[in-house]
Amino acid sequence: MNKRFIKGFTLAELLVATLVLSIMLVVMAPVMTQKAKKRIEQRVEVVQSQPQETLPVGAIVLWYGPNIPEGWVECSGQVLSDNDFQELRNAIATDYIPDLNRVFSTVDTNLKWIMKTK
Question: Could you give the CA distance from residue 112 to residue 104 in angstroms, rounded to a whole number?
């Protein structure tokens, strides 16, 4: 009878193979990560711009960032003065801006609802 024997690996051989594989991963991971990052940066262009200029006065958008763009105001429940926000008052037909930012005050201070005033 012809029996085939399958050779098993010894513990030492498994440990050496694991060590070699670990060293390869440690050496190759930074190289592979840098290549992937460069490819992503080439495909993605980050543009920081003002909210759409085509939006009408009174439009409300969710804004992320520490600086609110010119012509916009936070939606924090403030009362509108007669002289400063006449165009906005005419657009929304009320004397105050709704307090929408109260919801996000504990989440992230850079996340804000803003309203177009001009």
Answer: 7
Alpha-carbon gap, residue 110 to 67, rounded angstroms: 8
Query: Which three-class secondary structure string do you get for the chain?
Result: CCCCCCCCCCHHHHHHHHHHHHHHHHHHHHHHHHHHHHHHHHHCCCCCCCCCCCCCCCCEEEEECCCCCCCEEECECCECCCCCCHHHHHHHCCCECCECHHHHCCCCCCEEEEEECC
What's the pLDDT tens digit per position in 25-57? Answer: 888 777 777 776 676 666 656 555 555 567 888
The Cα 57–Cα 87 span in angstroms is: 7
The whole-model pTM stands at 0.52
Residue environment code for 97-118, b if the CB has 16+ CB neighbours within 10 A, otherwise e:
beebbeeeeeeeeeebbbbbbe
Strand 60-64 to 111-116 pairing: antiparallel
